Each structure stands twice: as C-alpha cells, then as structure tokens.
Amino acid sequence: MTTGLTAKAQGFTLVEVMVALFVVAVALPALMFQLSTQLTSTGVLEEKTLASWVAQDQLALYALQTPDRLQTVDGSQSELQGERLLAGRQWLWLLSTEATPVPGMVRQTLSVYPDAIARQQQRDAFVEIMVYARTATASGVR
C-alpha cells in the first residue's frame, strides 16, 4: 500500500464541489425563467394568430355575403358582432363601420376578443384590422 501523494490527489475538494453547486444554483433559475418566458410568448403568439385568422375570415365572409353592404352607410356609425368557434375556443368579433372625411369612403374596423367577458371589461382586442372601402354610390353600384 502506498499512502503517498497519489492517494491525496484523487477526487474533488469540498471547496471545488461547493463552487460547482453554486454555479448550478445560479444558472438553473435563470434557465427556468428564460424557458417560462418563451413558453408564455409562444402561447400569446398562438392566440394572436388564431385571432387574426378569425378577423380575416370574418372580413372575407362579410365581403362575400353582402357585396352591396355599404349602400346603407349614411355617415352614421354601425356595428355588427358575432361569435366564431376556432381551435376549440369561442371568439367574439366586432365590426364597426364609420364614415370618413373623404366623401364616398368608410372605415371598417374589425376587432377580435378572446371572449365576451374581455369585451365587457373593455380589455384590448387581441387583433384589430382596419380597412377603408368605397361606398356603393361612390363605386358606381346602384
């Protein structure tokens, strides 16, 4: 049996182990925070994407179902609203039409909310799309 320097040189000292544990203890919470932030951002991005799909679908349906939809606009503001089921969630959409300073033009704003409660609490819409359109009389349609 040799009990020289080779026996003492094996393994880590307590200080080395404590430093390594300290580094791990500092790095893990930072990593977990970063991961949770990315997961939250992914969820928000998914919701905004779904809401934008609802908005685009509703604008397209509105344009296809009522091509002469703007004949009734007389300078006053009108609103339509409804619900749409997409990806297992109920979405509330609100389409408001209002006159602009330019004769023959109206502004339509379509807002999509995650549910009716969010609208009642006057929270911001997930998505809001604004389009400008000519009225039926301005485009020559009678």
From TrEMBL:
Provide the topology term for how it sits in the membrane: Single-pass membrane protein
This chain's protein is named Type II secretion system protein I
Query: Mind telling me which NCBIfam families this protein's record contains?
Result: gspI (TIGR01707), IV_pilin_GFxxxE (TIGR02532)
Domain of life, per UniProt, equals Bacteria
Modifications made to the protein after synthesis = Cleaved by prepilin peptidase.
Tell me how this protein assembles.
Answer: Type II secretion is composed of four main components: the outer membrane complex, the inner membrane complex, the cytoplasmic secretion ATPase and the periplasm-spanning pseudopilus.
Where is this chain's protein located in or outside the cell?
A: Cell inner membrane
What is the species listed in this Swiss-Prot or TrEMBL entry? Pseudohongiella acticola
One Gene Ontology cellular component annotation held by this UniProt entry: plasma membrane
Among its keywords, does the record have Cell membrane?
Answer: yes
Principal localisation: membrane
Q: Does the keyword ATP-binding apply?
A: no
Q: Which residues form the Type II secretion system protein GspI C-terminal domain?
A: 45-123
Which Pfam family is one of those matched by this entry?
A: T2SSI
Could you say which residues form the signal peptide?
A: none
Q: Identify its protein family.
A: Belongs to the GSP I family.
Q: Which UniProt keywords apply?
A: Cell inner membrane, Cell membrane, Membrane, Methylation, Transmembrane, Transmembrane helix
